[in-house]
Amino acid sequence: PFITKDPVGYGGVSVVGASTSSVTISTSSGPCITVPTGSQKYYVTGLRLTSTDTGPAGDAISVGIGASVSGGVLDFGPCGNFHINCSGTAIFGSYTISGSARVHWYASNGAKLICAGYTITLTGTPAFSIAFAYGDCLSLLRVNANTFVGAATGVRYSISLNSAIYVNGAGASYLPGSTAGSAASGGQYA
What we know:
Number of strands: 23
Largest sheet: 9 strands, parallel
Distance between the termini: 36 Å
Number of helices: 0
Order of helices and strands: EEEEEEEEEEEEEEEEEEEEEEE
Helix content: under 10%
Radius of gyration: 15 Å
């Protein structure tokens, strides 16, 4: 796995691959990329991310509390757990999803996960066994105005514990998936 370390001083760190078709980070134990709790800003692009770890650490990208990551051109391949597991701040542009996972977007512990106004291309009809988007513990997923190209199977969303998925009124079938989503315990889908 690729574990980031904070640089000395201010600024951010960029992890730049040549292209998603030629640079793959693949793990069998732990996340492909870990941005530890309290880290500075990281930018990742030009990578394909896959993990065969089926445990709770089998994520493509794991973002700790207080950490921040933004992503450019990425390809989320098959992962044993979550594609994006965020407890900090995660901001993404257009990218591809070519593999299945338990969850694509997961926000918890007051996280902010933002991907709004971009194109997300799904190839091969990936399956999400828990939900495409999942939020709990006072988190926000701001995922409005995206264009989804392709299809997925599984629950569209699950939101609970005073968290919100903001889709700007796009409707219950806006997110990829084949099954209706749900909101409970103060969760809002709006």
